Structures are given as structure tokens and as C-alpha cells.
Amino acid sequence: MWYTQHKPQSPQAKWLDARAQKAQLPFLAKIAKHCSHAITLQTRFKTFNRGSQDLLDDYEITRHSLHQLRMQSNRALTGNGWQRNARYTPIFVPAIEGLLNTYDRHKSLHIHLAVGNLPARFADADLLAIYRDCWLSTKCAKDDVVLDPMWEGQECGWLSYMTKEEPKGKANSVDYHNTQIPEHIVAQL
User: Which residues pair with 38 in a beta bridge?
Assistant: First the structure.
């Protein structure tokens, strides 16, 4: 794990991390086919020359902020529809990156987010405004939000990009605690 990288990892732990990473990519590829947009969100947390405990604290604040973003964006996109009918629940797959980069003064913790199952009535500009407003209401947000539509065939490339830190030693970049996938889509996987 990234916050214990100074400790040697046992052969069993290395083996388990490698197995988890190998199993995760096919699962994410199946989800990716249902995602329509990629979002990058910057935090205000710089990673340069930070200790592992400080990074862990920033990581936890970021995870809490992602929870807030997910709940607020669900409401902004569907009203209470996502609570009444699981078919309205948006897909929300976040990955937190930047924890391995403590050497570049300009880098910060940031989130790559794949979303889908969104109401068709929203144009890309509307979606950007919704996610930006929801993000800026969180504790760690920086006003730097980029939303890009995904087209068929690009989704798997985006999810590979989201998990690019995993081969470098951060086996938990996808935040599964904040991942949200509607039941009807899970049933198709």
C-alpha cells in the first residue's frame, strides 16, 4: 500500500496485491461500457515532500469529500429518483491519484471519475455545472474540474488511465467505498 511503502512487503502480500489488481481490470472494463463521461477533479492538497501520515489524513478527507459529491450529485441529477428506483442511480467510479508523487511541487491529490447512467436531459455543460457546484461544496475541493464525454471504445482506456498508479505500488487507487453501480447494471456484468 502507498502509505506503508517504506516497509518491506511480504511475498504473500505482494502476491495478493498482484491478484487483486489483475482481477480488478476486467471488472472495471465491464463497468466502463456503461460510463458516458470522464471527470477529473483537483483537490487543494499538495503532495510535495509530505509525510505518510499527512498523506493518509488528506486521503481520508478526500474520500469523505467524494462521498459528499456522490450524494449531492445524485440528488442534483435525479432528485429523489435514485432512492425510489435503482434504475435512476448514476454510475460513480472514482480513483484517487497523486499519493505516490511527493517529488513534484506542482502536483496535488486529484480524482479521476467515470460516470454513467445519467439522465438524457442534461447536456455536457449542464453536467459540468452540476459536478463542479457539488465538488466545490466539499472540504478539499479546488476549482479545477474537467468533464469529457466518452465514446464507445474509449471507456476501457479511461479506466486504465484511472488505475495507472497501481502497477507502481498503490493497489487501492479505485475508491470502492464510494463506487456506485446500479443493480440493473451489476446484473448485466
Answer: 114, 148
- Map 77-139 to HEC letters: HHCCHHHHCHHHCCEEEEEEECCCCCCCCCCEEEEEEEEECCCCCCCHHHHHHHHHHHHHCCC
Q: How many CB atoms lie within 10 A of CB 160?
A: 14
Of 46 and 116, the one with more pLDDT: 116
* Topology of the domain covering 9-186: Alpha-Beta Plaits (3.30.70)
Rounded to whole angstroms, the Cα distance separating 85 from 167 reads 38
The pTM score is 0.82
- C-alpha 157/C-alpha 162 separation (Å) is 9
